[in-house]
Amino acid sequence: MKGILKTSSAVLSVAGSVAASPVNGRSDIITFKGPFQVSSDSVHNVHIGYGDESFEGDVQVVYGACDMSGSHERHHELGSTFFRRDARPERLVWLVPDEAIHGGCLHAYSGSSLIGRSAPIAITRNFRKREDMSKISDWSGPWFDGVAYMQNKANNNSFVAVEKSKKIAIVGGGMSGLLTSHLLTSVGINDWHITESSQRIGGRIRTKYLANTTPDQYQYQEMGPMRFPVSTKYTDTNETLDINDHKMVFQLADTLNKLNGNGSSLTVNFIPWIQSSPNVPANSNGYRLPNGRIPSAAQIKANSSLVLPAAKPDDYDEEVVTKAEDALSAFYDETPERLRNASLNIYKAHKEAIERGLFHWSEAAYLRYHLNMSQDMVDYVAGSGSDPMWDLYDSVYFGATTWRTIDKGLESLPRAFYPHVQDKLTLGRKIDGIVYSNDTGKVTLTWRQNQFAMEPETEEYDYAVVAVPFSKVRTWSLPKYSSLLTRAIQTMNYAQSCKVSLRYKTRFWEHLDEPIIGGCGSVDIYGIGSVCYPSYQINSTGPGVILASYSSGTPARSLAALSTEDHVARVQRAMVEVHGDIAAEQFTGAFERQCWEVDEHQAGAWADPLLGQQDLYLPAYYKTEANTIFIGEHTSYTHAWIYSALDSAVRGTTQLLLDMGLVDEAKQIVEEWMGRWISL
Q: Which of 341, 482, 599, 663 has the most beta carbons within 10 angstroms of its beta carbon?
């Protein structure tokens, strides 16, 4: 498609006076091909053609009555610019206002001469759509709305759709970057390139196949994300509701399977994930059974005395604790209805949480400054964390009664992507800067093959889509972004986690007197956290792998400082304490360890916004600055899940397409990929 360069109004006026050809009063020089039915308060591409191939000149496009005598009688203007003979646009962008009149026409003028007029256009009023969107969309807040987004762009700079041959950099080969590449290809934009700092794609997906085994040998564990909540059965009504968010993961798998040919070695298959199992170890607060073992969840459920009481503060007051717990519960107000609604639409739930003040308080701050509890009691009840009280989505997700994971490991997702990106992928290139030129409107990536070189290597692009955690981006040399975006990059908080997987000669845990069949438990041994057992190949023969430690938060930071040998030995001793001597007899010595804070490509496990960061920073991601768009789970409403990364890719790609004036393609992405929060 031919396009036209964006330019300022001053340049337009000069170009018009110097280069414009004389225009005769013909109404067929520009022809309008549609659409001829639109809705008010929406954005559309207007497709145009030319009755005179030699035409060049200033063009103003307006909407008004079909019989109006001049542009001064217009209802509203779409925009004006200079049409060059060698780069004439084939599409314009029309922001249809809410009060647009029905049955009018589009008119093209060059100076005072009419050079094109459309057939009458039917404009319908879509009251319901905009009313519904107003409940979750607000340009002043973090709800991305395509109409408002285009209204906030300079009129003439968004009037003409650009060509699809723009060169796009995708920085980061995680799931958000990979999906972005697919979305661009799906709408005919093929000049993109992925630059990845590591030697693999997949980002925080990190399936480890222990002892150099292959996926079909089933001796693996997930050192990154590992499961997907599917649905929840509510006992009060006996109804089962899907958790809509994560459907995007299943949609992506279906898409990749079709691309790769269903039944191929690259097929992504989902299998049940066992989240809860009765015989997993449980936190007993130091109590041990007579045989020295840690009690199971089933044993503690049957006998609560197997959990030792926690030490209490000197000023402990049971009545105050009860009051605090009741107050927090009332403030959260996670009613069954609210949980149901969040499972259906997390975006609406997010806005409601802001309106209810959940982002304005941490639990500790609420108890200390709203209920005036003592600091000691606050720390005992709620800890001293500064996370906002927005964890409804975790309540919904971890309340799921049906879960799925991916057969042979989540690594199957990036593996299925690889054939489609391998020819446009550079691995091992560590970007260290972004440079934007105001003169050319281009963005340049910088990197150094020799880290001591003063002058970097560079490559220039039209746009950069950055799918790299802010924990890494903040170390780069960057353009002068807005204050808000700069602060988001510099200060976004990241959670830490460490995982250790251990390989045993057999799956002995499935053959104990009280067999453990999948599921995750937790123990009270410091630094161990959760213990998860494989949900695949239950009761199979041969070696097996336990995720023997999944620790997050402050303990993970301490664990990351341990030597690998010390950390693994600590975890193996814990497995003996959980399972008995058989864990020592069966240990093969093979292990995998992942501490995300010290991962050179991530520097954090997932985004964990501090109090005030989530609602403040989200709007910054929805404004393209220096031709750069930021995506990744840290820019989404939810964090730590693959869905969060995919969600950001849909938003970021739609944002890029709107920047390019490709409204038709933006609508295609939204309609196909569950972009329910974007109104086009």
A: 663
Helices (H), 7-53: 9-19
Tell me the torsion sign for CA atoms 569, 573, 578, 583: positive
Handedness of CA 358, 360, 364, 366 (dihedral sign): negative
User: Is residue 647 within 8 Å of 350, Cβ to Cβ?
Assistant: no
Q: Tell me which DSSP letter residue 104 carries.
A: B
Task: Name which of 286, 309, 281, 308 is nearest 297 in CA terms.
Answer: 281
pLDDT in tens, 646-666: 999 999 999 999 999 999 999
Based on the fold, state whether residues 51 and 118 are members of the same structural domain.
Answer: yes
The fraction of the chain above a pLDDT of 70, given in percent, is: 91
Q: Based on C-alpha coordinates, what's the Rg of the chain?
A: 29
- The per-residue pLDDT for range 212-259, each reduced to its tens digit, is 999 999 999 999 999 999 999 988 888 999 998 899 999 999 999 999
pLDDT higher than 90, residue 675? no
DSSP string, 468-531: S-HHHHTTSB-----HHHHHHHHH--EE-EEEEEEEESS-GGGGSSS---S-EEE-SSTTTBEE
Q: Residue 156: its pLDDT value, please?
A: 58
Whether residue 35 is preceded by a cis peptide bond, meaning omega within 30 degrees of 0, is yes
The per-residue pLDDT for 390 is 84
- Is residue 295 located within the same domain as residue 394? no
Q: Which of 570, 605, 640 is the last residue of a domain?
A: 605
Query: What is the rounded CA–CA span in Å between residue 362 and residue 368?
Result: 10
Co-location of 293 and 327 in the same domain: no
Q: How many domains does the chain have?
A: 3
Query: What CATH number is given to the structural domain containing 522?
Result: 3.90.660.10
Domain that holds residue 318: 310-399
Residue 436 lies in a domain: no
Alpha-carbon span 547 to 229, nearest angstrom? 19
Determine the Cα–Cα distance for residues 209 and 408; give it in Å rounded to an integer. 9
The 8-class DSSP code of residue 28 comes to B
User: Could you please report the per-residue DSSP string of 221-251?
Assistant: EESS---EEEEEEETTTTEEEE-GGGHHHHH
| H or E segment to which residue 180 belongs | helix 175-186
Predicted confidence (pLDDT) at residue 319 exceeds the cutoff of 80: yes
